[in-house]
């Protein structure tokens, strides 16, 4: 008799372009026969999780894997009003075209997108209604994307309060809870560092910094060597890292896959292919460790942690 597939609740964290590693994690889980019954995500975790639940991951991976820096930049609809630099309409139209519109309650698995009501200062869990309205709200990185007005609320990135939203998955009974944390400890050298990468990559970032600095009248401080954009993103990452540690300690998931926060910068979507492969590598390591423990009959007393090996 064929064994019942191991069921999984999958928690996909926030972290900009590093969220493309989520695709690799999903690919590895599916390849091993795991049955993903529930997904919750913040920011890029909500994006990738929603696209997978809708059945559009193949199309999305093919599209994002072909993006160059110029393609990424052309997709950004800049604005100088509304509380952010990018409206996000062009991106959402493209995602909708790739995978199709649907309501969350129509998805074949339990799905939750987490956003933050910036006016009331509280989390909002979307478990019904338009998938891409929920995704757009969840990915509204403060000061980068404009806040999203939906259902009478002003909504921003879910990672602001809950970068690894484990709690929404607790209503679904599964064998394992797998968390993908995109704000793991930095690794030296950076995991995706390549010869000459620092010289070739900054074109898009220079233009993004230019927009941000022009908007805010900020010159690059001599004292720190950091532009406003870098201070903002590093501050968000530091905050999310601290919140993540607290959430993992409280919920103690079975498997934690940690993607180092210096794997890439938040905007580097042109690194999709290596990021997907890296996510799959980390997932394979974590699942190997988990499966070895199960074969030995060891009850998981602490999360299996997957980190890049020196």
Task: Please explain how this structure is put together.
This protein has 310 residues and is of the alpha/beta class. It has helices at 21-31, 44-54, 57-65, 69-74, 89-99, 131-138, 197-200, 202-216, 228-251, 272-295, and strands at 7-12, 35-42, 110-117, 122-126, 148-150, 153-157, 176-184, 255-260, 304-306. Strands 1, 2, 3, 4, 5, 6, 7, 8 and 9 form a nine-stranded mixed β-sheet that branches. It is globular, with a radius of gyration of 19 Å.
Order of helices and strands: EHEHHHHEEHEEEHHHEHE
The geometry reads as globular
Secondary-structure-derived class:
alpha/beta
**Beta strand %:** 15-25%
Largest sheet: 9 strands, mixed
- The tally of beta strands, per DSSP, is 9
Stretches with pLDDT under 50, minimum 5 residues:
195-202, 214-222
Number of helices: 10
Mean pLDDT across all amino acids = 86
Summed up:
The protein is α/β, with parallel strands linked by helices and 310 residues long. It has helices at 21-31, 44-54, 57-65, 69-74, 89-99, 131-138, 197-200, 202-216, 228-251, 272-295; strands at residues 7-12, 35-42, 110-117, 122-126, 148-150, 153-157, 176-184, 255-260, 304-306. Strands 1, 2, 3, 4, 5, 6, 7, 8 and 9 form a 9-stranded mixed β-sheet that branches.
Key attributes of the depicted protein:
globular, 310 residues, alpha/beta, 9-stranded mixed beta sheet
């Amino acid at each position: 008799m064929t064994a019942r597939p191991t069921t999984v609740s999958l928690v996909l964290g926030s972290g900009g372009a590093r969220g493309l590693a989520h695709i690799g994690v999903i690919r590895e889980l599916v390849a091993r026969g795991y049955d993903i019954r529930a997904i919750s995500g913040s920011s890029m975790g909500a994006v990738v999780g929603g696209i997978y639940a809708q059945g559009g991951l193949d199309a999305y991976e093919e599209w994002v894997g072909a993006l160059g820096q110029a393609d990424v930049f052309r997709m950004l609809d800049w604005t100088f009003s509304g509380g952010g630099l990018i409206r996000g309409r062009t991106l959402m139209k493209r995602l909708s075209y790739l995978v199709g519109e649907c309501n969350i309650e129509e998805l074949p698995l339990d799905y939750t997108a987490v956003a933050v009501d910036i006016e009331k200062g509280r989390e909002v869990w979307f478990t019904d209604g338009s998938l891409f309205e929920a995704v757009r709200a969840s990915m509204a990185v403060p000061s980068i994307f404009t806040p999203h007005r939906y259902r009478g609320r002003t909504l921003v990135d879910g990672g602001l309060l809950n970068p690894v939203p484990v709690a929404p998955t607790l209503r679904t009974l599964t064998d394992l809870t797998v968390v993908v944390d995109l704000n793991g400890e930095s690794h030296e050298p950076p995991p995706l560092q390549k010869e000459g990468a620092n010289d070739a990559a900054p074109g898009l970032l220079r233009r993004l910094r230019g927009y941000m600095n022009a908007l805010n009248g900020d010159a690059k401080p001599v004292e720190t060597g950091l532009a406003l954009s870098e201070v903002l993103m590093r501050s968000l990452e530091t905050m999310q890292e601290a919140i993540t540690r607290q959430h993992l300690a409280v919920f103690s998931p079975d498997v934690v896959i940690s993607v180092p926060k210096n794997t890439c910068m938040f905007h580097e979507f042109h690194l999709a292919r290596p990021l997907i492969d890296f996510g799959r590598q980390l997932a394979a390591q974590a699942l190997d460790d988990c499966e070895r423990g199960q074969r030995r009959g060891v009850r998981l007393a602490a999360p299996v942690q997957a980190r890049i090996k020196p």
